[in-house]
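User: Could you go from structure to sequence for me? I need the amino acid at each position, not a summary. Structure tokens:
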């Protein structure tokens, strides 16, 4: 394809035709010559937005194409939806900017947009517009996704923020996203050390990446604040939560929920599961952790109370009688893997 905006025919054929109109929130959206999207929310709802960007991995299941710097469209849009849900918003729409290299074939562009439409339909989001441009500045497809959600006033007012004395709850298990990546990227190496069923199960942890269900339960159950764990692992996410609030915390290391598959994969790949990509796990602060975990469990979502928010700024990890201070977030372990072995 030629450098610059993709041609009108390509835009119509491989981009716009993949986008389906859903819901009523987007009053005016993706189309030829449409530079803005117009949103309309009833009952005084507020619009919330967030941005995610990454090089796009086109073949998600081909281990040799995956790298720590690439994401699938599913992962990018899901991350936006997670971020919106954590702020109490209902994901409504996505704006997508695609920068593509000259040698990209049109069927690949179509596949990228089909993937984007598929995940948006599953999340009840509408692709509201964006840009699609061919440029010599990239050597692989690159996407910038802006997620837009609607936030009801009563939900906004109910999220009071992090305060000392609150319990800290973690949903599902830590390291899910990183475990799935490592199992796909290093599948052959892992099969020499781990049983096939374990590697296959670990590679399928992508199915747990949405935190929208637990965010919805948490909002209805008196959550004070939420933070979706991601790059930097659970340690990085806990630090960010405390740093943003100017608070301290005490965490029981033994209570941080780990799947056995994550333990095995991390041991084989020589990475720290507590500092590994943690997408799929939601950190929630609330007045009564036991009550919240019970409601999450009733909704089919595993959860555990792992600690408390404290006065001051000390971030403490307890492991039986051992007590140590949490370090500032480090570079995510996903960038190491077998390189450190």
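Assistant: Here is the amino acid at each position, in order:
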């Amino acid at each position: 394809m030629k450098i610059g905006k993709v041609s009108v025919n390509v835009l119509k054929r491989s981009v716009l035709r993949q986008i389906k109109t859903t819901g009523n929130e987007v009053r005016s959206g993706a189309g030829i010559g449409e530079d803005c999207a117009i949103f309309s929310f009833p009952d005084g709802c507020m619009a919330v937005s967030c941005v995610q960007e990454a090089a796009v991995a086109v073949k998600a299941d081909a281990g040799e194409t995956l790298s720590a710097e690439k994401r699938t469209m599913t992962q990018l849009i899901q991350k936006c939806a997670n971020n919106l849900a954590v702020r109490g918003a209902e994901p409504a729409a996505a704006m997508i900017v695609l920068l593509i290299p000259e040698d990209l074939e049109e069927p690949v562009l179509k596949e990228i947009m089909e993937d984007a439409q598929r995940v948006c339909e599953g999340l009840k989001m509408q692709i509201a517009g964006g840009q699609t441009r061919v440029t010599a500045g990239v050597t692989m497809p690159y996407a910038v996704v802006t997620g837009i959600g609607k936030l009801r006033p009563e939900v906004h007012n109910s999220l009071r923020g992090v305060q000392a004395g609150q319990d800290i709850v973690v949903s599902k298990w830590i390291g899910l996203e990183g475990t799935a990546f490592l199992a796909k990227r290093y599948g052959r190496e892992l099969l020499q050390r781990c049983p096939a069923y374990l590697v296959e199960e670990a590679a399928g942890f992508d199915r747990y990446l949405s935190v929208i269900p637990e965010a919805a339960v948490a909002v209805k159950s008196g959550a004070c604040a939420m933070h979706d764990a991601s790059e930097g692992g659970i340690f990085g996410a806990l630090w960010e939560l405390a740093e943003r609030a100017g608070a301290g915390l005490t965490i029981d290391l033994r209570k941080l929920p780990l799947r056995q598959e994550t333990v095995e994969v991390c041991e084989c790949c020589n990475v720290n599961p507590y500092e590994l990509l943690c997408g799929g796990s939601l950190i929630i602060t609330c007045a009564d952790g036991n009550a919240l975990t019970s409601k999450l469990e009733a909704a089919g979502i595993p959860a555990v109370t792992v600690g408390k928010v404290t006065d001051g700024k000390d971030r403490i990890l307890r492991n039986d009688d051992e007590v140590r201070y949490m370090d500032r977030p480090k570079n995510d372990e996903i960038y190491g893997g077998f390189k450190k072995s």
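One structural detail worth keeping in mind: Residues 183 and 199 are 6 Å apart (CA to CA).
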